[in-house]
Task: structure prediction
Amino acid sequence: MSKPDDEPRRPGLFSRLTEPLAERTRERFEHVEDRVRQSIQSEIDAVGRSVRARALEVRPSAVAFAVALLLTVFGLALLVTSAVVALALVVDLWLAALLVGVLLIGVAAGAAAWGRHRLPQPVRVAPVRPGPPDAEELVHPWAD
Result:
């Protein structure tokens, strides 16, 4: 006699012992996941608060440096203009502007060359050979 498929199967002894254990394990894993998630979120929030606090501390200094940079650029522009005007006393105005412009471009090129010379050398990567490796390269440490 065979049992009909509609009757529910009674759980065996092994499944009756392991199901509560599996359920408790699942609950503990969920609890650990929640705690890890909360920990990570609290760390992210702490870092965000720290960065915002530091930005508020640094903001006045950053504004002061920006103002100093802007005034320095204006000062350098006035110095270049005064050099053109002073040179215009000796030569024509257009020639004075041309000479000062060429001099500034030369100084800029020299600074760029110096900066390029001071860059670290790039790391050279060995090219990868296409295709399968040779048989000699497939030596295992345990092979004689």
